[in-house]
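Q: What does the assembly look like in three dimensions?
Context provided by user:
Components: two
Sequences:
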Amino acid sequence: MRRWMRVLRTPLGLTATLLTVGVLVMAVIAPILWTDDADAIDTSNILAPPSSEHWAGTDNLGRDIFYRTLVATRLSVELALSATVIAVVVGLVLGTASFLLGRRAGRFVNAGINIAVAFPGILLALFFAVIFGVGATGAVLAIGMAGAPAFGRLTQTLVAGIASRDFVAAARVAGVGRFRSLFRHVLPNIAEPLVVNATISAGSALLAFAGLSFLGLGVQQPKYDWGRLLYDGISSIYVNPWAALVPGTAVIVAGLAFNLFGESVAKALGVGVVGGIPELPSVSAHLEDVAPVDASRRPAEDVDDVVLDVRNLRVTFPGPRGPIRPVRGISFAVRRGEAVGVVGESGSGKSLTALAVSRLVDDSGRVEADRLDLLGTDLRAADSKAQRQLLGTSMAMVFQDPMTSFNPTQRMGGQLAESARHHQGLSKKDALSRAVDRLRSVRITEPEKRAHQYPHEFSGGMRQRAMIGMGLMGTPALIVADEPTTALDVTVQQQVLDLLASIREADDVALILISHDVTVVGEVCDRVLVMYAGRIVEDLPAGELSAAQHPYTRALMAAVPDMHTDLDEPLAVIPGRPVDPSDVPQGCAYAARCPLASARCRTEEPALVDGVACWHAGEPIDIEVVDRELEEVEAS
Amino acid sequence: MSLASSVAPAPRVGVTAHPWVRFGVRRLGRLLVSLWVLITASFLMIHLIPGDPVRAALGPTAPAALVAAKREEMGLDDPILVQYWHYLQNLFTGDLGTSITSQLPVSDIVSQRLPATLQLAVLAFVVAVLVAVPLGVTMGVLTRRGHGRRTELAFTTTSVIIGIIPDFLIAVGLVYVFGVNLGWLPVAGNDTPSSYVLPVLALMVGPAAILSRIIRVEMVAVLEADFVRTARAKRIPNRSVYLGHALPNALTASLTLGGLILGSMVAGTVLVENVFAWPGLGSTIVSSILNKDYQVVQAIVIVYGVAVLLVNTAVDVALALLDPRSMIRED
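A: Here is the predicted structure of the complete assembly.
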């Protein structure tokens, strides 16, 4: 019940609830209070415009339109609710048929439902109106039957979802009959969505009823509902337009009330299932502490040779409770032909770093840096045509998931050709032939044929090679590859890495390889940046990984199984959890998981000095401590 | 049933068949089964009416001999299967019977009334799409993740409310404002180009609201997709990213619902035509129901039904052209 009260929390939900209650109250009291006023005939005052005596004027017998509209609430609501009950009951019978009758008969009923829902409701209503005859009863039946297929489909979907659950199957195995298990297990579990949808259909039924009465097929005189009043009013719209507008407004208000009430309830209940948005703690306090660590030291001064120069890069996103900063001031440079690996756990900020240096961070995020130069051009400046041209031709991107990184509705050749057409001004034909040439260069067989195919006709490894080929449409000086092999089969991972290596060699192209896999990085790269909680904690040549200084890098290396690993022993893992970017602790972010952590580590954040950011760099780690923590992790 | 069973084995005809052939055969099969259901339902309609439909149409005062003669003429005394067979035969030769009130051939009435309805429905659909696509795309871009919370709330609330209001009430409002109050536009008939304005407007406003809302949601979802990031990585202008890459993918998802909306617009003409005294099928079917002129009703029900089925089929074909995966996806 408390979940239902959530409806009242949003302004729309509250309005809809109040309106619905108002309409229902009016339906009860209006005929009791005002029937005499509504039926009073005054032939001396027919089709009069609004006056202080008759707020909405009078009809062709001099009766008060305003009171008639109020009194008509009851009949309009009654008819709509009756039609809804019919729709729900018939829909339930149709929708549960496949559960009760078994698969074969059920399939037949479902096919019927599917055909019926393809026809618009008004058409079905007219069809049934012919069968059931003109008048209020016929219209109730017609609108009820017209609504039944849609309700049947809903029920069928819901029942199918529940029927496959274990407890229903268990009840069946235990010998519970189909009818019994329908009423005891299935219906109670789908009651909520059914009630919500019935509320919405009540609104639609009300509007449909007004429609039928408006056509003269529904309520007949001397009875009247809103549709009938509208039907009478429209014929005299030039004399007293209010005779049509007032009942019309009543229909809209009541129809909206039921509809929006149903939608709001659905939304409120839906949120209840998901559990709401988790509240992230504020990080704004920590942001002030972040010193521009080591901004001046690292990157090389030999500018000619530098492809990418990054200093004190920060990325900030707005969070529900203050800004979140997943990248907290990192600096590095990449030289021509150099391969730099960036490793870290998920959430360490490594992918965001790749997106930030390539200016692809979603524009809800803020990217700041003291320097961000590609081939000597400042990328921090506003998005200019020259900048786009430089990025489009000199930097190639390779993304993690080749299955989703191509546009599924375009042919591969066109997708490759697009950048050449924009940045190199090639004609459609020339761009396409360059695309074919590039596909060949990334070892795709029959490139002419392949260029005409869609992404789903390519295998995963082929797509990733095509993605690299796309980057080679220009003359890249830098390839940024974000987990390029993670989504691929082990057998094709090596092909992709070899391809990247051969491109580097051939054209002296620099590479930034983002990976969570320290072995891949160690194998491909010259230099490795180890990231933790949005910072670089160690920057070292790939050859020295086994002699790493930072306890985190050493833990990463220890977690890699090698030839000598005893496979009977559990694989080493790093105890504890990665840091949540919205809640970075004071001091060294790794302290909570670090066997070497001291009091200083928990208060002062170490700067990156001589390639490592640690107060205890290189100190021996007591293996027993690690083992003990490992056991604790396993026990928990 | 005979039709259904003759269609069922068809998909297995070609084992090596091209996906397009398999898709075509399966889709055609579904169309034919639906068509058969439609025709059979409209045949049964007359037989499901309680009492004698001829007596009901001619009135209680008509002489018994006239009723008997009319029943004879319509073949209502034959066994029902014979009647069904004749009905199908007549339908395929274009003979839809005779109107019991006007004595005119039903096929003449339909062919005379159909163009006005088609004009109205097609025009309204075109205008609705021309409004909804740019609106939905713009709103999608403005309210993509992390942007325009208030714009989104205002747009969604407005479009939900407009989408719920039925077209005939919008029509009444338009008649009041532009016909009665301002006197700018004609409110009845289809004699001048300006008389198209209000009916088309009444018919397209609701669908345009619903369609633009769907396109916005799809656009927001597509803008999050990996391939949009790839497109951005090519550093092509934003316009090309939105219109060249995001829009086609947002449209494929919107197309199914767009088809349903077009289908309901065909039927929506019934009410709108009655507000504006539009000389189409909608006003005819209502007066025929009231006059119990059942053969005219039968024929018009079939015409509307066929229109809806053709629209649905066209949507599936368009979907297959835009996104070839949809051919394989559907079971």
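Follow-up: Chain A touches chain B through 69 residues (CB under 8 Å).
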